[in-house]
Amino acid sequence: MADVSHQRETGQDLSGHPDVPEMRERYARMLGGRGITAMAGPVFLVGLFCALSPWIIHFTSSQPALATHNLIMGVALAVLALGFSFAPGRMTGLSPAMCAMGIWLIVAPWIVGSGPDKGVIWANAVIGGLTFLLGLACAGMAMRHSRRGVRRAA
Question: Where along the chain is composition biased (Basic and acidic residues) (predicted)?
Fold first, then answer.
């Protein structure tokens, strides 16, 4: 019967294998978007709060258009967060869009709403500011990763 033990002989390792550089590059590509994965949790929580803010702050009856707006924007942020956790390498291009979403959330009470009160303004300002900052962080991580990849390829 053949010897099928998995013990390595002394001096035998993978460093001399011809596919080692390719395996290292593939492993680096797979882990490349992991920094953005860490941002998925906070982005999801901001999206969840944005979606639920009309009911938490109680402006569903006074600002129905803004309530619908915040629900849609919150769901969109939550979907982005899920994308960051499931396909981080493919979602990095959407991180600057979060910055635009944050700015839009800040100005939305005056554009979408009608005569917003201080609570609505503060809630959207905080949600928009956090979204903008998280978008900047995700975009920064994506740019740092792309620079590292360019440096590695050269």
Answer: 1-11
- In terms of Cα–Cα distance, which of 112, 51, 104, 120 is closest to 79? 51
98 occurs within a structural domain: yes
Residue 149, pLDDT score: 54
Could you tell me where the beta strands, DSSP code E, fall in 30-106?
none
User: Residue 72 falls within a domain, yes or no?
Assistant: yes
DSSP 16-48: G-TTHHHHHHHHHHHTTTHHHHHHHHHHHHHHH
Identify whether 34 is part of a domain: no
* Distance between CA atoms of residues 78 and 73, nearest Å: 9
Residue 111: its H or E element: helix 95-111
Helix (H, G, I), strand (E, B) or coil at 104: helix
Number of domains the chain contains: 1
| CA-based radius of gyration for the chain | 23
d(CA 141, CA 154): 20
Residue type, position 34, single letter: R
Taking a C-beta distance cutoff of 8 angstroms, is the pair 80, 47 a contact?
yes
- The domain of 105 spans 43-153
pLDDT over threshold 90, residue 89: no
* pLDDT tens digits for range 113-154: 998 999 999 999 999 999 999 999 988 887 776 665 545 444
